[in-house]
Structure formats: structure tokens, C-alpha cells
Design a protein that fits this description.
Alpha-Beta Plaits, six-stranded mixed sheet, 37% helix, 20 strands, four-stranded antiparallel sheet, 484 residues, alpha+beta, single chain
Length: 484
């Protein structure tokens, strides 16, 4: 009888605890994983710079070789070229790959990107951005968190499981143009929906951060409409000594227009912009109230004096569940060091509006265009304005009660011994909504980045803890998916 009780307890313990062999294997290989990340970070795959496009392409081929080493079937899909500054610049290929052994088992598709934002040491980095540097448990370098480290964590998880048993079929979609709009990927997803995606059951996007040091799952993102508003004055730049005070200056007109968009509290002043916004549910409000988000720490890390809201849940909801408008810069005005007494002939203001569910980009574009034209008419300037929306990305919201999210929660519980934080993010990852709309499959954002990783900024990093435990998380997720 005692033996039977012992065996029963042993069985229950084994079923509810992680596979120690797999997790120990990941721990043993972590130095190898960090070295591989160092090799990937060293490739300056900045997709915004035409002169570095070959580096992006090289990065895609390196990832393809890594997948082949995992015995994946790999296709590098060529997307042609794009016109930049009057030249044809090749687009990097998209990787479509798969490890499929049992059609009776579910198939999960992971998405990630291998291009990065621009980075220069002289911009304020404390380390060389393309030379992975470990300090105080953090791995510093461009792309560590966004998104090379997260992609590698998935591949390392698959590699480890293959030594034992890969519990499900796995597919991969990796691109090299995410940071500049995912050129060509949306059409490719539509073209391959009936082939590559036909047997995919779940889609997991590995390109997000946690709200706090507690692991979390993202179930929604904001969309984005990015605008250029151009003001044209004289045909060429003028001398301020000769023309100052007697002409309508384009820069003054532009600053006037930009100043009418949003008030000092962040409230957007464009009429009708909030009409379609649905406030977060009571359940969501509770998610944010229970979050371990540390506003004081974030302020210290980024040098922010104060947020526009004081309550933690208000900060989190305002940056993810409501629209926001940010002014990004002015092109054409004098911005170099020193002095230059010039009146620019043409200037372009750049701003974006983050959209939330039910806000349609086409409606927002009309609202912005009508409002700016009305305000410019009030200025009574003879100058000419043009308004163009250069990015249209829809928001995304998923069903958190589905089986994929159940598996994600169980995986986090298994690895971190805690319930995950559930949240929406304020950023825009357009491919999430596109995957869901085109394929009709459940999508989940399961990232492993920390809240202070500073992707897109100076000193981007990924902690070694998140990198290694995140690898275990993806391994646990694949194990949980087989039981759905």
C-alpha cells in the first residue's frame, strides 16, 4: 500500500513539474547560446540603411543555415527589390521553414525578424552596439532583445527538444524588413495561405517585452498611422536678414500645425478621433492593477521626470488601450551644429497616431487631413501644404480564453512557477493582425524581453536570465501544445 501511494505521488509530481533533463540540457549549453547570439549581433542587419542591405541578406542566410542544421526544410523566398533614393535595392529573402514529422500532431508556427534599428556608439552607447558585451547579467548589443535573442531562444528550444522528442510539428517565418514595414511579407502570407500555412494550428510571435520582471503574454497591440505634413514656401531657401519679417515662413506654419495636434497631457485634439475607442473591460483593468509594473524604476532607467498619469493602471492602459499621438521630427529645417541664418523653403513634419481596436486607418487619415487643412486655413498663410500617410497598420486583439493561451499560461507556470501577466502593448507589430485575418488561426505574442531592454534605443540589452529561461519557456510551450 505504501509503495502504491509513493508511486502515485511520484507520477503526479512528474506530470506537474518540468522535464528536468531538458531544462538541465539548456543550462549546460548556455555559453554556446550566448556565443551564437554574439555572432548574430555582430552582423549589422540595419534594414533602414540601403548600404547595409547586404548585411541583412547575409543575416537571413546565416539563420537559414542554422535551421538546416536542425534538419528543417528551408525555403528562402526572394521578394525582388525596392526603390530607394532613385536606386533599386534588393529586398532580403523571407525564410519559410518547417520541421514536420507527424501530421497527426498539431503544428505551431513561430514568427520573428532578424533586422535591427540603426545604432552608433557615438549616439550614446556605453558599449559597441554590434559587439555583444555582458555586464551585470545583461547581454548588451543591437538586436539582443529585438529580435535576434528571442528568435535564437526558439531555435535553441527546438534544438534541445530534438535530442529527446519534438512533441509537435514546428514551422518558422523569419523576415528581414520588420523595422521598416515588412515589405513584401503581407502579400507572401496571402499567397502561401493555402500551402505553407494550410496545416498551421497556432501562430506564436516572439517579438515583445514583459511589463515587469514577471513573465507575461501579449494579447493585443496598437496599430499605427504615420503622417508626413509638408509645408512649401518659397522655391528656395531664403536669407533671414533679407526676407525675415516680410514672408510667411514654412517652418512657422509647420510648428503651428504640429502644435494643434495634441495638448500637454497627451490628449489628441483632432475631432472624432476617440469616437470608435472601446474602453478596456473590467477584466483588463484588473490585469493592469495586479501587474508588477514598476513606474519608478522605468522613470529612473529612461530618465523620465514624470508620467502624465500617476496610477500604475492608468499609465499601462493609456499606453496600450487608448490612442496616442507623437511628434517625431522635422525634416528640411536647419539641424546641424553651429548657426545658419536660413529660412527653409520646404519643411516636413513627421508624426504618428497609435490606433486601438475599432479605429480604422482610412477613417483616421480623413480625420487628420480635414483637421490640418482647416487649421491651416485659419492661419491664412499663402504657403502650400500636403498631407500624406506613409504607414497604415491595423491594431490587433486576440481571444485570451483559447487553447493557445492556455498552453502559454501553463508553460510560464512550469518554468517560472508563477501566473503570467496578461496585457496589451502600445507598440505596433502589423504582422500579428495580418496573420490572424488571413489564416484565421489563433495568434499569441509570447516574448521574453525585459521591461527595461531599450529596444530601438541606446544600450539595448537582453538579460542572460531571460535569454536562458526564455529558451526553457519555448520548450515548455511546445510540450504543452501537444496536449491541446
Amino acid at each position: 500500500m505504501i509503495i502504491l501511494i509513493f508511486l502515485l505521488l511520484f507520477t503526479i509530481t512528474c506530470e506537474s513539474s518540468p522535464n528536468p533533463t531538458i531544462f538541465e540540457d539548456i543550462n549546460r549549453h548556455q555559453e554556446e547560446y550566448v556565443q551564437r547570439l554574439k555572432e548574430w549581433v555582430a552582423i549589422e542587419s540595419d534594414s533602414s540603411d540601403p548600404l547595409k542591405r547586404e548585411e541583412v541578406i547575409r543575416m537571413m542566410h546565416l539563420a537559414a543555415e542554422r535551421l538546416k542544421e536542425l534538419n528543417a526544410t528551408v525555403e528562402l523566398v526572394e521578394l525582388g527589390s525596392q526603390k530607394l533614393y532613385g536606386h533599386d535595392v534588393p529586398l532580403p529573402p523571407v525564410i519559410l521553414a518547417g520541421i514536420e514529422k507527424d501530421p497527426k500532431k498539431p503544428t505551431v508556427c513561430f514568427y520573428g525578424h532578424l533586422d535591427v534599428q540603426p545604432a552608433k556608439f557615438e549616439d550614446g552607447w556605453s558599449t559597441q552596439p554590434y559587439n555583444l558585451t555582458e555586464k551585470d547579467g545583461n547581454l548588451y548589443g543591437r538586436g539582443t532583445s529585438d529580435d535576434k535573442g528571442q528568435v535564437l531562444a526558439v531555435l535553441h528550444a527546438v534544438e534541445t527538444l530534438q535530442k529527446h522528442e519534438l512533441p509537435v510539428n514546428v514551422k518558422f517565418v523569419f523576415e528581414g524588413m520588420e523595422e521598416v514595414g515588412s515589405n513584401g511579407l503581407f502579400t507572401l502570407v496571402e499567397q502561401r495561405n493555402s500551402t505553407f500555412f494550410s496545416n498551421v494550428d497556432y501562430i506564436v510571435v516572439t517579438d515583445t517585452l514583459w511589463l515587469s520582471n514577471k513573465p507575461g503574454i501579449t494579447y493585443g497591440t496598437r496599430g499605427n498611422c504615420y503622417f508626413f505634413v509638408e509645408v512649401q514656401g518659397a522655391r528656395k531657401d531664403l536669407h533671414s536678414g533679407s526676407f525675415g519679417g516680410v514672408v510667411h515662413e514654412a517652418t512657422g506654419d509647420l510648428i503651428f500645425l504640429l502644435n494643434t495636434l495634441v495638448n500637454s497631457s497627451g490628449h489628441i485634439l483632432i475631432p472624432g478621433i476617440y469616437d470608435a475607442v472601446v474602453p478596456p473591460s473590467e477584466k483588463e483593468v484588473e490585469f493592469y492593477k495586479e501587474s508588477e509594473f514598476n513606474a519608478a524604476k522605468i522613470k529612473r532607467t529612461f530618465g523620465i521626470r514624470n508620467f502624465t498619469y500617476s496610477a500604475k493602471e492608468e499609465i499601462l492602459m493609456r499606453r496600450s488601450c487608448y490612442p496616442s499621438l507623437s511628434i517625431h521630427g522635422i525634416e528640411g529645417a536647419f539641424s546641424a551644429s553651429g548657426t545658419k541664418t536660413v529660412i527653409p523653403a520646404k519643411v516636413t513634419g513627421k508624426f504618428s497616431i497609435r490606433l486601438v481596436p475599432n479605429m480604422e486607418p482610412s477613417v483616421v487619415i480623413n480625420q487628420v487631413t480635414d483637421y490640418l487643412k482647416e487649421k491651416f486655413a485659419e492661419r491664412k498663410s499663402p504657403n502650400h501644404i500636403s498631407i500624406k500617410c506613409v504607414i497604415q497598420a491595423k491594431p490587433w486583439l486576440s481571444d485570451i480564453d483559447g487553447p493557445l493561451y492556455l498552453a502559454g499560461k501553463k508553460a510560464i507556470k512550469k518554468v517560472f512557477n508563477t501566473e503570467p501577466e496578461m496585457f496589451r502593448i502600445g507598440g505596433t507589430i502589423p504582422i500579428g493582425s495580418h496573420f490572424q485575418e488571413v489564416t484565421g488561426k489563433s495568434a499569441m505574442f509570447l516574448g521574453i524581453g525585459g521591461p527595461d531592454d531599450a529596444p530601438h534605443g541606446q544600450n539595448e540589452k537582453l538579460s542572460r536570465y531571460n535569454f536562458i529561461e526564455g529558451t526553457k519557456l519555448y520548450a515548455a510551450l511546445l510540450q504543452e501544445l501537444v496536449s491541446l
